[in-house]
Design goal:
Number of helices: 24
CATH class of the largest domain: Mainly Alpha
Structural class: alpha/beta
Strand content: 5-15%
Bound molecules: adenosine-5'-diphosphate, magnesium ion
Largest sheet: 6 strands, mixed
CATH architecture of the largest domain: Up-down Bundle
Oligomer: single chain
Length: 607
């Protein structure tokens, strides 16, 4: 309500804390738990996965079969010159390759689409959790960081299951080929697989390294996203201060860090692949040396050796692919770590209301010794507030900037909860009511008028659940003095406004948010300097709209204009988080020093 993304981003410019993820050393059990949690999202698409696995089961033994065909081709066709064998081998190769093609297609297509659907679900779930995070989380954390988690980190998880299946498939290929080479010639096979254990160490070493690098890189992706978010939402300031060059440099800095860590990732990935290859070449060398000397001695056929070498080369191919799959799994784990961190946090601290539905008429709102300190500041923002607001009253709150007025207003819809004391609505603590019914009963209009990317009608009816009529929307617009200018827009009530729509003036935007509040029809109204961002001319008409909104409603008005204050039943003067005095204008002017100063500085001449 009222908070724009730009406002959320302000003060959140600190790059993401890498320490959080970096220092968290995940054990094997933890990784496995996270992997299982990621896989859960794929399991919703069992049919696709089943087809993909069938495809895989057919593709896997094809490698061993083609190694066997090489032996047939060399020994029977080339050496024995057997025409029947030639026909057989030719047809077999065509059939085998076609089969492999069809089933590999099934495997890849269904596996990849299952992956897409899985991350689609995951992304939706993550957003659904993020919007229920409490307001103070949006103040502290960074919108850019959250965006990066939804957009980038979720995407990494996509390769988790496909890579695991690939790993399994290649494992069976290796097993099949290994079985074949031992069957072919166990002595040769011994030399060929002698170096295999040597591949194990780099495999484990590079797994760890890739995981660490991926974590770091995703942190940097997030930092770039934070910079981008800040740069775009603060673009007016950047241009106004002619700081484009400095911002470009800051962006470039973050990007350089990202590229550097991506660079290390590529390096590690290439190194691990080349190490695997080198190990493979040692194996091939050993076989060639031992097998070759046996062919020369005459106790091994040329075909057998070639078939063996083919199988051996094929054997290292899946090992290399297992290595690649492993790297993808490490990346996916990194993404999962970062995504589930937010999800769990969201589950822990999600806003929770009580069970009482607020559907009775508003009688009284009472602040009892209310205390609140923002968690990143030492000084209390509210320090023992006692105040009663009775049905039908208009309470004006005045005070210098920083005295705690906005904080007080934000406590009423429970954007923040009291740390001491209580706020009672009809004699019950706010926390007893369901958040939905509580927030529906109140309207908050603040100085920054936020419109969604939607039509004028949709913006006005934003608070309506279910159907609404054009008459209702128009009535609200008329009461907010917005109807006339809406009709002059290119498509009237169907005109798109917001970021991508028609640009409106500040006063016009504010009148639309007032129409929105009128249509919501809240029993309690909170106005937080609703006209302070406007020029005098538009302020006047917005003020008229506000009067219509406040008609027959209880309202708490944070005011900076004398006219608003004079119509209030009670004026409350705040200073440094406390209420220093309350009463009517004339009395306060007489006895309250702070009020007098405020009056002279703010309201005096201007009104
Ligand atoms: N999100 C926040 N985090 C930390 N401190 C805040 C935050 N918002 C306001 N404050 C501090 O709380 C105090 C009261 O602020 P605020 O309620 O906005 O005052 P007012 O609306 O009267 O100008 C100020 O000292 C301000 O610096
Ligand atoms: Mg304020």
């Amino acid at each position: 309500m009222g908070l724009t993304p730009a406002e959320l981003a302000v003060g959140n410019a600190h790059p993401e804390q890498h320490s959080l993820s970096d220092s968290k050393k995940q054990g094997g059990a933890e990784s496995w738990r996270m992997l299982k949690r990621s896989l859960h999202y794929f399991m919703q698409y069992k049919a696709r996965l089943a087809v993909a696995v069938v495809g895989m089961l057919v593709v896997a033994p094809c490698a061993a079969a083609s190694a066997w065909l090489v032996k047939k081709a060399v020994d029977d066709v080339l050496i024995n010159k057997d025409i029947v064998a030639l026909k057989f081998v030719t047809i077999a190769i065509v059939v085998l390759m076609t089969l492999k093609g069809v089933f590999r297609f099934l495997q890849n297509y269904y596996m990849n689409t299952a992956g897409l659907l899985a991350i689609n679900d995951l992304r939706n779930e993550l957003f659904a959790k993020i919007v229920y995070l409490p307001m103070d989380y949006f103040n502290e954390s960074q919108v850019g960081m959250l965006m990066s988690r939804v957009l980038n980190d979720v995407g990494l998880i996509r390769s988790s299951l496909p890579s695991m299946i690939m790993l399994t498939r290649e494992f069976f290929s290796v097993l099949g080929l290994a079985f074949y080479v031992f069957y072919l010639d166990w002595q040769l096979a011994f030399w060929g697989t002698l170096v295999l254990p040597a591949a194990l160490y780099p495999f484990i070493y590079y797994s760890k390294r890739m995981r660490k690098l991926a974590r770091r890189a995703q942190g940097h992706v997030s930092d770039v996203s934070v910079r981008l978010q800040e740069g775009l939402s603060g673009i007016r300031i950047i241009k106004g201060f002619a700081k484009e060059k400095a911002e470009i440099d800051r962006f470039l800095d973050e990007n350089t860090k990202l590229v550097a860590s991506n660079n290390k990732q590529i390096l590690a990935s290439e190194q691990s692949s080349r190490v695997m290859e080198t190990v493979g070449s040692f194996a091939a060398g050993l076989v060639l040396w031992y097998g070759g000397s046996r062919v020369i001695a005459g106790d091994l056929t040329t075909g057998a050796l070639m078939s063996f070498l083919t199988a051996l080369i094929m054997l290292y191919e899946p090992i290399k692919r297992m290595n690649a799959a492993n790297i993808d799994i490490q990346m996916a784990l990194t993404g999962a770590e970062r995504v589930f961190e937010i999800m769990d946090k969201a589950d822990d601290i999600a806003e929770r209301g009580g069970s009482v539905k607020f559907d009775e008429p508003f009688r009284e709102l009472a602040f009892k010794d209310l205390r609140f300190t923002y968690n990143n500041s030492g000084r209390p923002a509210l320090d023992g507030i006692n105040l009663q607001v009775k049905a039908g009253e208009r309470i004006a709150i005045v005070g210098s900037s920083g005295s705690g007025k906005t904080t007080l207003a934000n406590m009423v819809p429970r954007f923040f909860d009291p740390q001491g004391g209580a706020i009672l609505l009809n004699d019950r603590p706010l926390a007893d009511y369901t958040l939905n019914s509580l927030r529906r009963s109140m309207g908050l209009v603040s100085q920054d008028a936020f419109l969604f990317n939607a039509t004028v009608r949709e913006n006005i009816a934003y608070g309506s659940e279910g159907a609404y009529s054009q008459e209702e929307v128009e009535a609200a617009a008329k009461a907010a003095y917005a109807h006339e200018f809406i009709l002059e827009l290119p498509d009237g009530y169907d005109t798109l406004v917001g970021e991508r729509g028609v640009k409106l003036s500040g006063g016009q935007k504010q009148r639309l948010t007032i129409a929105r509040a009128i249509m919501k029809n809240p029993s309690l109204l909170i106005l937080d300097e609703a006209t302070s961002a406007l020029d005098t001319e538009s302020e006047r008409i917005v003020q008229l709209a506000l009067e219509n909104l406040m008609q027959d409603r209880t309202s708490i008005v944070i005011a900076h204009r004398l006219s608003t204050i004079l119509t209030a039943n009670l004026i409350v003067v705040m200073s440094e988080g406390r209420i220093v005095d309350q009463g009517k204008h004339a009395k306060l002017l007489e006895r309250c020093e702070i009020y007098r100063t405020l009056y002279e500085m703010q309201f005096g001449a201007a009104s």
